[in-house]
Amino acid sequence: MKDSGRTPMTKQILPSILDITPDKFMSMLTTFETTGIKALHVDVMDSHYVPSLGLNDRLVAWLHDHTKFNLDLHLMVSDPEAVSKLVIEAGASSVTFHHNSIVDSFNLIETIQHTGIQAGVALNPGDSPELLTELLPRLDRVLVMTISPGRHSNGFLTEMKQKVTWLSQYRATHKAHFVIEVDGGITADTIGTMLKAGANEFVSGSYLTKVSDPKSNIAKLQERIADYVHD
Prior knowledge:
This protein is about 35% helix and about 20% strand. By secondary structure, the chain is α/β, with parallel strands linked by helices. Strand 4, helix 4 and strand 5 form a beta-alpha-beta unit.
């Protein structure tokens, strides 16, 4: 596992690589590297837990062997125990699974962390953060979905700010160490809401990968973070 260098106070952009077309894949990796991106967000979907198919462990292995990026794996699958083993062996830096996809979250968190990998739990838009109260002291990451996972986006869900605020307050009160990550509809117009609420990591997909000038949009997100940190 590559050294992430991350703490709950670190704020960074994680490009989601799911929608990068094959013809642009290598050039996008170069763009990410030259703009200071340190980690990639990799969605794995099984067409069962969510209606879409996502990326696989072979791509994770290739990225691990041929790039310097940390690999943030987001498992939208019905069997996260089995899939987590595959992506950890392939070189994942962190593995996040959905709270409602497994009966024994404690065991899977422990299993992931035992391998030296960061463990996270994701909350769907309809999930309350209080569901994770017993897990939070053990977690490295909480992923708050700001769109419905694995579906065509209906836009950024501003209401998710309340979850991030609750998690941030819990983290401060209990001196917990988990990172708060947000995923879905993150642009220069929406990132400020989540920065103010206490989020640390910002997954951005089509805003970076489906535009003619991704460097410009990466810079805009990084500027929003810098402005917030320096305020």
